[in-house]
Amino acid sequence: MVPKRVYFLVFFTLIVMTWVTAYISTVDLGKWNIFVALAIAIFKASIVVLFFMHVRYSSRMTKMIVCCGIFWLLLLLFITMTDIWTRSWMGVPGR
Amino acid sequence: MASHSLALQHHFEDAEQQKDASTIGMWVFLLTEIMFFGGLFLAYFVYRQEYPAAFASASNKTNLLIGAFNTTVLICSSLTMALAVRCAALGKKNLLVLFLILTLLLGGAFLGVKAYEYHDKYVHHEIPGAHFDCEGCIDAGHTPLFFALYFGMTGLHASHMLIGFVLLVILIVRAQKGAFGPEYHTPVELFGLYWHFVDIVWIFLFPLLYLIDRSGVPK
Fold first, then answer.
1. Which of A2, A48, A84 shows the shortest C-beta gap to B49?
2. What percent of chain B has pLDDT over 70?
3. Could you tell me if B201 and A12 are in contact, meaning their C-beta atoms sit under 8 angstroms apart?
4. Residue B128 counted as domain residue
């Protein structure tokens, strides 16, 4: 049984991070805005998965399945984006 | 009263194995959902890379305060859902029903705010189509892409919440009848996974649609 205070601690962190990220978005960090915003989002999503979704307390099988899902999502995003990011480097037709 | 519906299927060794199998099944379903939303996130990243100025000026049309407020509402509903699962496991029937109803109400509040935002976009001609008009936007010709993704992603998210409402009502009725207790509350727990997943999708939608490029429009 997960102690009640764990839930409240996660909840409190999520609320604080939401308003922190909303505030940081108004500060001009140049190209770093997107990285900060996504880093905070990844942190928030991680504590939801680990504590609200009980993955921290789940079997290794469940943990492996969750990791597989994240891995496939990263494959989808990164392999496609490497094309989008680098295609203009060559100056070839189709671009 | 609460323990009559253990309902161990004959192909499982024991209740724990049955529960593990259900949990893993739910996670596999959620992985397909990750890929479902993942395709839209990919489309967002690709078009944002292609038309950064259009995306930046269009995303400044969203309301930061409303977005942050709505994120807070959804996180509250995640907390009540987590507490509902806990109460189900502890066999506290009345609290379980209360937390499920609170989850439903907070989810409804989220969608209410979302409807207000949609209406606002409608009034300002920010829905892609014949009457689309992105006032004062840079590279306005490509801004419908942002709004198409905005409505597509938040719409798919909202439809997941509507499905969640139907499931919640079923759970509330069953919980009221005393169907869940310490021995058996798998449906509550699995619905919790679904609800938190929907929350996570929003945790990523909020920065991507509302926050990025707010501090300055790139050249």
1. A84
2. 95
3. no
4. yes
